[in-house]
Amino acid sequence: MTRDMHYVMDLAVPRDRVWQAWTTAEGLATWLCREATVEPAVGGRIVLSWDTGAVTCRVLSIDRPRLLLLGWPTDAGLAEVCLQLRPTLDGTRLELTHSGLSGSAGQQADRIWQQGLERLRAAVRSASPP
């Protein structure tokens, strides 16, 4: 059985700053992973590396600065990570859905997203404007 994880957070920064944190190697390395390689186009790869290993995602859809849809590989096939960014009066609403995970993969991803999104909040606050 697979499950979907959904996260919503409001960030008091412009949408372009959040987008940059998700779609550049430098941005991703400040909050999600140790090192990243990013090809921000449909069919492109996003490689996220940690000390314990790496994951290679495929960009399934991209609509700057609103939507990023990634194919996230799992042992059971392909899961999806959908990032949506919407402007608010105070900045940006981030909605993240990671769907198609099961068992320990879901638990591990949930831990990564919960910890990572808190680091993202701090990273975009301290980042220079794009």
Give a structural overview.
There is one protein chain. This protein is α+β, with helices and mostly antiparallel strands and 130 residues long. The chain has a single domain, classed as START domain (Alpha-D-Glucose-1,6-Bisphosphate, Chain A, domain 4), CATH 3.30.530. The chain has 3 helices and 7 strands. The protein has helices at residues 15-23, 25-31, 103-126; strands at 3-11, 35-38, 45-50, 53-63, 67-74, 77-88, 91-101. The protein has a 7-stranded antiparallel beta sheet. The longest helix is centred in the last third of the chain and has 24 residues, at 103-126. The radius of gyration is 14 Å and the shape is globular. The mean pLDDT is 92.
Notable traits:
single chain; 130 residues; alpha+beta; Alpha-D-Glucose-1,6-Bisphosphate, Chain A, domain 4; seven-stranded antiparallel sheet; 3 helices
Summarize the structure.
The protein is α+β, with helices and mostly antiparallel strands and 130 residues long. The protein contains three helices and seven strands.
The low-confidence runs, each spanning 5 or more residues with pLDDT under 50, are none
User: Treating each run of at least 4 consecutive H or I residues as one helix, how many helices?
Assistant: 3
The CATH H-level homologous superfamily: START domain
Task: Give the integer mean of the pLDDT values.
Answer: 92
| Annotation, overall tally of beta strands | 7
- Provide the structure class: alpha+beta
Distance between the termini: 41 Å
Number of domains: 1
Q: What order do the helices and strands follow?
A: EHHEEEEEEH
Indicate the overall shape: globular
Name given to the CATH architecture = 2-Layer Sandwich
Largest beta sheet: strand ordering: 1-7-6-5-4-3-2
Q: What is the name of the CATH topology?
A: Alpha-D-Glucose-1,6-Bisphosphate, Chain A, domain 4
Q: Specify the helix fraction band.
A: 25-40%
The radius of gyration is: 14 Å
**Which CATH C-level class is it?**
Alpha Beta
Beta-strand content estimate: over 45%
